[in-house]
């Protein structure tokens, strides 16, 4: 390989670009949104189904919670970093539809109504997300959208909603599950409002049937494949393992308009160490994941804020090429991942999966990154996480040695010159 001619390298590059164009051919839902992975805040992991506002006024699922989160997003740099959607999850509804069959918010917890909440969120330059379910009931037992897809889509649009998370509990049969997700997508389109459509279709389908991602991408802007994230390192590990095991089928489908969703960022909560938080941020960037934080933006450490607002990491996640990264090797309890970026660049992550001892060095050759193109014939290397630092210029046959803490990740950006 080291003797490869310049012409050979150019041919290899042309071939890789042609392959990349082919892989990007799957058509995405054409609703004008989610051209890069959507970013925002979603209440579920941190606030769950708190409905008792008398007992816990600051943490119950109420209009106050979303207004305070929107205010923090606008004033504390989150919006400037790219976080845009303030999203409601399950448990916002009244137990029954209104006399005209429409969904309605719980009157005690959302006394001003969703339209007013949307107005407030929009006045901050942000967008509002709501939640419903494809079946007769949501996961927490509130009214589902089955048999009401068009009415609910119209209701959401009339309120000024910008994103719908559509859960899959109580889906009935596999046919109803698929028809429900398709019909809601068409109903949202018919409203004429661009509404990000967040699906859980493959998650509910998978136990019984291999999802058809070409089809799912025609109807959804992002889709959950795997279990809910929780506030723990074991949860983050299981999501990464699942993604790596299934990367041959899911990575190629991701692109502008349609994304695999590994679930919320839990950074800023209680369960992750600093190194594990760095790993979640780095790997969610590598996976081109929608970045929905679930934490309390009114009370978050400066370290978590620095990490979540890190512009270089977010730029890797939001890269306009829209390619999801993948694991290249797993060796001696290290994992090496890469994500192709625009401008002949690659993001490279080295994850130390060993959970005993101290920092360890991982040494790898630049020759094989990016199918031989990442550092061809030379490149600049910059470390983005856990701290930013320039690593200078390297050439095609160089090796890099990076020191990685247990359960931590070193994230690099390699630009071919
Ligand atoms: C509805 O679908 C059509 C055809 O795919 C598309 O051109 C249009 O932009 C969509 N409208 C909305 C609001 O999603
Ligand atoms: C919802 O309930 C109705 C009436 O019981 C039933 O016919 C229908 O199949 C249910 N739908 C789903 C998606 O479970
Ligand atoms: C989806 O829409 C089609 C066409 O309107 C309808 O025949 C079908 O019953 C709907 N399916 C569900 C689950 O609502
Ligand atoms: C998957 O869905 C696409 C688009 O609807 C369709 O063309 C294709 O035949 C489906 N593939 C399989 C294996 O069913
Ligand atoms: C890793 O390599 C660097 C540079 O070669 C060296 O300074 C450092 O001590 C090494 N760390 C470990 C944990 O071996």
TrEMBL record:
Leader sequence residues: 1-28
Domain of life: Eukaryota
Pfam families: Melibiase_2, Melibiase_2_C
SUPFAM superfamilies per UniProt: (Trans)glycosidases, Glycosyl hydrolase domain
Compartment(s): Lysosome
Primary location recorded for the protein, binned into one broad class: other
EC number: 3.2.1.-
UniProt entry keywords in alphabetical sequence: Disulfide bond, Glycoprotein, Glycosidase, Hydrolase, Lipid metabolism, Lysosome, Signal
Domain spans labelled Alpha galactosidase A C-terminal: 322-408
CDD domains associated with the record: GH27
Family: Belongs to the glycosyl hydrolase 27 family.
Subunit structure: Homodimer.
Name this protein carries in UniProt: Alpha-galactosidase
Native species: Apteryx mantelli
């Amino acid at each position: 390989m080291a003797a490869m001619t310049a012409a050979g390298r150019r041919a290899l590059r042309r071939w890789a670009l042609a392959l990349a164009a082919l892989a990007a051919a799957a058509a995405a839902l054409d609703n004008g949104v989610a051209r890069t992975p959507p970013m925002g805040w979603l209440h579920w992991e941190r606030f769950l189904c708190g409905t008792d506002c008398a007992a816990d006024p600051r943490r119950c699922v109420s209009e106050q919670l979303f207004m305070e989160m929107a205010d923090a997003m606008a004033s504390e740099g989150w919006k400037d970093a790219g976080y845009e959607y303030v999203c409601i999850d399950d448990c916002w509804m009244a137990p029954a539809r209104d006399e005209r069959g429409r969904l309605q918010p719980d009157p005690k917890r959302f006394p001003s109504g969703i339209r007013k909440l949307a107005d407030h969120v929009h006045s901050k330059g942000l967008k509002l997300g709501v939640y419903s379910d494809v079946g007769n009931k949501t996961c927490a037992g509130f009214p589902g959208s089955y048999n009401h897809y068009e009415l609910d889509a119209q209701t959401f649009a009339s309120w000024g909603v910008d994103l719908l998370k559509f859960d899959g509990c109580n889906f009935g049969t596999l046919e109803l599950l698929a028809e429900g997700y398709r019909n809601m997508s068409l109903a949202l389109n018919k409203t004429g409002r661009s509404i990000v459509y967040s699906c859980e279709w493959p998650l509910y389908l998978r136990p019984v049937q291999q999802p058809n991602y070409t089809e799912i991408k025609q109807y959804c802007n992002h889709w959950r494949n795997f279990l809910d994230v929780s506030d723990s390192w074991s949860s983050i590990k299981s999501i990464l393992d699942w993604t790596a095991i299934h990367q041959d089928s899911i990575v190629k489908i991701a692109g502008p308009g349609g994304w695999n969703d590994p679930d919320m960022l839990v950074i800023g909560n209680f369960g992750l160490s600093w190194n594990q938080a760095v790993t979640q941020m780095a790997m969610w960037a590598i996976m081109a994941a929608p970045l929905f934080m679930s934490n309390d933006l009114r009370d978050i450490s400066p370290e978590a804020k620095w990490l979540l607002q890190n512009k270089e990491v977010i730029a890797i996640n939001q890269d306009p090429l829209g390619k999801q990264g993948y694991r290249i090797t797993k060796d001696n309890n290290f994992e090496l991942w890469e994500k192709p970026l625009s401008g002949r660049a690659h993001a490279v992550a080295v994850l130390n999966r060993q959970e005993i001892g101290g920092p360890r060095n991982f040494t790898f050759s630049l020759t094989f990154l990016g199918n031989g193109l990442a550092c061809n014939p030379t490149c600049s290397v910059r470390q983005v996480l856990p701290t930013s630092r320039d690593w200078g210029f390297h050439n095609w046959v160089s090796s890099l040695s990076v020191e990685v803490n247990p359960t931590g990740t070193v994230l690099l950006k390699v630009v071919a010159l």
